[in-house]
Amino acid sequence: MSLSTPRWWYDRERRHAPVTRMLLRPAGWLWAAVTARRIARTTPEAVGVPVISIGNLTVGGSGKTPVAREVLRLLRAAGIEAQALSRGYGGRLAGPVRVDPAVHTAADVGDEPLMLALDSPAWIAHDRVAGARAAAAAGAEAVVLDDGHQNPALAKTLSLIIVDGETRDHEWPFGDGAVFPSGPMREPLQAGLARADAVVILLPADMAAADPELVATFGALPVFIARLQPAAAPPSGPLMGFAGIAKPWKVERALKAAGADLVEFAAFPDHAAFREADLRALTDRAAVFDARLITTEKDWSRLPPEWRERVISWPVTAVFDDEAGFTELLAAAVIPSPLAGEGMTAQRVG
Predict the structure, then answer these.
(1) Burial class (CB in 10 A: 0-12, 13-18, 19+), 284
(2) Could you write out the DSSP letters of every residue in 47-112?
(3) Is the pLDDT of residue 340 over 50?
(4) Cβ(19)–Cβ(26) under 8 Å?
(5) DSSP β-bridge partners for residue 316
(6) How far, in Å, CA of 273 to CA of 24, rounded?
(7) CA distance to 158, 161, 195, 197, per residue, from 328 (Å)
């Protein structure tokens, strides 16, 4: 059963749910110990092509998939045959399987691989090494590994950490630093950063700059700034929004910031499988306001086919402030040479 993300996870001042935090903390210590032991005891395997890992340090909601799509686009625009690889969370197929959006559904391969496959060849595999080898055998010159930072099986050429840059209204991407289920962390902050090569702070479109305190958290690691930009403005007229992602409140906030006439918003658990009853209830509620339904591209991919014409998909993309510098970082990993990376600069704030 899917559970909604506790919003208090992202309050680092521990003002909310202090007893719950305390009771869950021992489980977090156990989770962190198991993760550290698994990483320490695994010898990563190389597969003959560069592997760029797009990961995060929290259990969701940082924007990995939009960044992975942009990494794929930049590499392919540079003439590099980059292909995506995902575990296929939520899908029934174990893989390795190349994702075909015309054939597969989210129930087969998961919602995120379907999004990645819209722009680039994409594979799913529970065994990430087997998946990377399948991609390489199919002609991949680079593999972009979605959500792979805590998976030590594959040898990574470049490890990027994606961080949600929203720090307004007392929000902090790492909460109070506690590990799941006491907080949002998959592992302690410094343990995860020690395996990273660079950080991408993903800002909401309406946020002018990254919090200097957040940037300073990453010390000497290169930091790049990207913005989550809508592919188009929301349609005019009353809209009833809904989303089943790790931080659904971000979608509500983004729609309002983009000028949507949002009459109401419904939040569902991450990767929610929308039932007919859910969709009928949303439709009935929207009818009260004479509103149309709107959701994220990721949620839209999980809708039953007969519902897709009745719901508006609102895509967003990751846009880098320093696209040239970020592309240079990628090129240095994929095409190593004495000159690759020379003069590379990350955008620092503060």
Answers:
(1) exposed
(2) -SS-EEEEE-SBSS-S-HHHHHHHHHHHHHHTT--EEEEE--TT-S--S-EE--TTT--HHHH-HH
(3) no
(4) no
(5) 230
(6) 27
(7) 12, 17, 20, 14
345 pLDDT above the threshold of 70: no
Question: The tokens 């306001």 sit on which residue?
Answer: 289
- Could you tell me which residues are beta bridge partners of residue 200? 162, 224
Secondary structure (DSSP) of 281-347:
HHHHHHHHTT-EEEEEHHHHTTS-GGGGGGEEEE-EEEEETTHHHHHHHHHHHHS--TTTTTT--PP
Say if residue 342's pLDDT is above 60. no
Task: Report how far residue 165's alpha carbon sits from residue 61's, in angstroms, rounded to the nearest whole number.
Answer: 11
What pLDDT, on the 0 to 100 scale, is given for residue 3?
A: 58
In our burial notation (b when 16+ CB lie closer than 10 A, e otherwise), range 181-217 reads: bbbbbbbbbebbbebbbbbbbbbbeebeebbeebbeb
Instruction: Give the number of other Cβ atoms within 10 Å of residue 40's Cβ.
Output: 8
What is the DSSP secondary structure assignment for residue 278, as one 8-state letter? Answer: H
Q: Starting at the edge strand that comes first in sequence, how are the strands of the sheet with 292-296 ordered? A: 261-267, 238-243, 292-296, 311-314
**Residue 114 three-state SS:** helix
Task: Return left, alpha or beta for 97; rule: phi > 0 is left, psi -120 to 50 is alpha, else beta.
Answer: beta
Helix (H) and strand (E) counts in the chain: 11, 13
Q: By the 8 A CB rule, do 241 and 247 touch?
A: no
**Strand 223-230 with 316-320, pairing:** antiparallel
DSSP labels, 126-155: SSHHHHHHHHHHTT-SEEEEET-TT--SB-
How confident is the model over 319-328, as pLDDT tens digits? 999 999 999 9
pLDDT in tens, 141-181: 999 999 999 999 999 999 999 999 999 888 899 998 999 99
